[in-house]
Structures are given as C-alpha cells and as structure tokens.
Amino acid sequence: MTREPITPTMDLFSAISDEMRLKILMLLDQAEFTVNEIKDILDIHQSNASRHLAKLSACGLLKDRRDGIKAYYRLSEDLLMSSRVLSVIRDAYGELQDKDILCCRAEQVLQERTDKTKGQIHKLDQAGGSLKAQISLFSRLMIPFENAVDIGCGEGGDLSLMLANRCKNVTSLDCDPKVISGMQKILKQKGITNITPKVADMNKTGLPNNYADLVLMSQVLHHATDPRIAIKEAVRILRPKGMLALLDLAQHKEESFRTTHGHIWLGFDRNQLEFFVKEFNCRIVSSEIIPSENAVDKKLPVICMIITKD
After folding, report:
1. Is the pTM of this model over 0.90?
2. What does the CA dihedral 25, 26, 28, 30 come to, rounded to 10 degrees?
3. Which domain holds residue 201?
C-alpha cells in the first residue's frame, strides 16, 4: 500500500475522539476560520478553542496562516492526502447531533466576510493584470467552447466579453450585485445575447454538475475564504475532459493589498495550487509563472495554469 502522510497513532485517536475537536475538524473541512470565529460558532471560551486547535495541530491535522494578528486554521495537506484517516473523520461527522446548526453558523460567518470585501475585486489594469499574463492565458483558449463560465467576472466583465466571441454560451458570475447590474447594462448597450450574468459566490455557483466545457478563474482565487473549496466548486461544474483556466497572483509580500484590494491571500505558491487541483482528480496540462513586465506600478508575477478534468 502507498504510505500516507498521516498514520493512526494513540495521540491521533485521542485527538479525534473528542467531540469538540471533531466539530472543529468539520468546520475546517468547509473553510478556514480564526480562533475567534471557531469559538463563536461553537459557543466555547477562546482558551478552550486554542487548546483544541493546538492538540489537532500537534497531530499534523491542521495548518495555519497569518494575516496580521489573526491566524486562520485549515485542514492540513497531509490530512487531505491521507484518505483512510480523512474518511474515518468525515464518517464521524454524521454522529454530531448539532452538525446542521454549526454548519449554518459557519455559513453566516463566511457570508459576513464576503460582504466586507464586495466591490474590492480589482480590474485587469491593477496588481495582477499583466497584459503578458492575459495574452499567455488566452493563447491557450483559442478553440470554440459550448458553455463557458467566468467565475468572478468583475466590473466591466472584460474576459466574459472576450469569451463571447469564441463560446456559444457564457455565464458570468460575481458575488457583487452592482457588478452584475453593470454587466447587464453593458450587454444591452452592445446587443450581446449569449452572456448570462448571475450573482453567485465562487464557493456556490448554483450551476449543475458537469455543466461547462470551460471554467475561467482569473484574479479571483486570492479573494476566496478557502481556495481549495473554490477550486472544488469550479471542478464540480466542469464536464469531464473540460478545461479549467486559472490565472492568479504568485506568492508575494504586498500586505497593503489586503486593505486596498480586499485580498485574503497574498498570492499562491504554485505547488500549493497544483496540490489542490490533483486532489480533485484533475490533470495539469500546463503550469507557468509569468514575471511582471512593470515593477514600477507593482505589477506582480502571476501563475497561469491550464487544467483538465479526468
């Protein structure tokens, strides 16, 4: 058998046998959360939440990332790659009597986060909007598609309009109703009828399984509360052998983008994105880091990735 990163031990069983820690794992299986968010959702004291998180982290089940003074916790890559242990943990969620209530509270927390960043999605001419990167992406998409989905189309819907020339139907999604309203006006002015704008979160598009030949995620993943969940949703709506075109910032240290642009993640390590993709049985056709051609205006390197669904 292939050796998994996490193997059963007495410490591991001790960690996951506690009901409160199992609830924490269930929450973090949905998205990443801070200590304060976890203690509010579970209605426990912060010191208790911190103690449980420390126990789970010591067993390699959790990872955290820093955002200023906050620490966001998520399931570790080692746990996600350990299918036997993960299966046992997920099966145990069904024994939690208040699981539905906790999931609803978690959804409310995520919605509040989304509301705070609405309207801050930047356009193509800003930090990650390198023209070189856009050309590199679209040079790989010069084939016709039946149904395309532009997740996080943004103000003006520039990429959706480009796709409309090559696709029979384009669905443009954005979480901000003002963006979608503006998109509807543009389409009416231009007389374009094959684009359907829709208000939707990238984690829950509302589209059916295996719907799209092409899913485009350009400069939106760094706004995701949990990039893994956002990629999982994009793969869900993609038909087998369909194409997921992903363009986003490479890892950087421009902390100011959190406030000026509403970024949650300061770009991504390419290996991290490739790990997320492979978890969902997808194949990476090409993966490239494209350097900035204009450092003066803080244009940043981006990752251009083309993925197919097996």
Report:
1. no
2. 160
3. 131-309
